[in-house]
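Lab notebook: predicted structure, single chain.

Context: the supervisor wants predicted structures on file for every construct in the current expression panel, including those that have not yet been purified. This is the next one on the list. No modifications to the sequence; it matches the entry in the shared construct table.
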Amino acid sequence: MSELPVIIVGGGPAGMVAGLLLARAGVRVTVLEKHADFLRDFRGDTVHPSTLELFHEIGLLGELLKLPHARLDTGTLDLLGRRYTIATLKHLPVAAPYIAMMPQWDLLDFIARQGRRYPTFDLRMSTEAAGLRFDGAGRVDGVTLANGESLPARLVIAADGRRSVLRDAAELPLDDLGAPMDVLWFRVPRPPKTSADAPADVPLGTIGKGGMIVAIPRGDYWQCARVIGKGGFAAIEAKGVEAFRREVAALVPGLAAGLGAIAGFDDVKLLSVALDRLTRWSRPGLLAIGDAAHAMSPVGGVGINLAVQDAVAAANILAAPLAAGADPDPLLHLVQERRWTPTVRMQAIQRAAHRRVIEPMLRGEVTRVPLPIRLLDRFPLLRRIPGRVLGLGFGRQHVESPLAKDFS
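Prediction complete. Output recorded below exactly as produced.
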């Protein structure tokens, strides 16, 4: 069994980081990614300090930060026509105390390049997993592919996202916590004269009587997200694209000049938001991590970073035993035990934001600024609390998985 690879299904942040850390420990690993590349606009862009610190711990932060990115060390929100400062990350005790606004495809390409430095790392693009293989005792012993091929594995790690095929095939129990909203993604060109940082007239986040919009700066355009009620896209389409453009411009006037680039709803992508978690993340031969184990709301942009923390925890627990040829099955439950409380706590914060901010906004009931936001804006020291939660999360992991002697 020790000669077979660990197969990781899903080339997102969780899968790629797990693959990199296992490979650098000398474990043979194969990452399967169903797409031909990583170029997809619906992927998040926020690489938080907790994730940047992990790259620092393995000596890759300097190389990572050579990639194009903007830096965000203060959280602001335009609410009912006024800008509020609600979080600061400048005080965090890490090498990079800020959020790096970096397209996720650049991050994933970077991890892939680093992984290929190790002979035990294999990334297979355009390779879609369709199901699981089981041995005679019911243990997962590999995956089946959409093309009919079957791949044996020593261990399968399901990192295939919130619509995970593998967690369904493994019959892992899912607790759906519910989410009141969906998100519409679209691009708006930036005027050539603007800098790499978000200009003052286009805040990162805006909440008004007309809804909520996030505008992420990406070089010569903003990647925008408009929050809508769950299942509300059909009604927006029925009103027409011109009405959509007018509503966006009314909420964020700084975007108005570029909204003509949205020719129709083919230029708008729907992200169906989910908030859920598996109550059991593993069975013999299989472990689920990242969105496959717990889909996060977009609130706070923390999904990538929780997924990466899962990957680090999995490598910390499994890499050395796998490299030594041990059976991983008795250790799989430890990953969930280590990551369960941080996940539950962050999802509780997101659910509170849904109830107290998102749902009233969707009902058009945001008529005054909540007291906590007023306090954070008035007393700067208080901003460190949400800054720490946003930047470092809960149960922060450090890289403890070994570097194989052959690679040191």
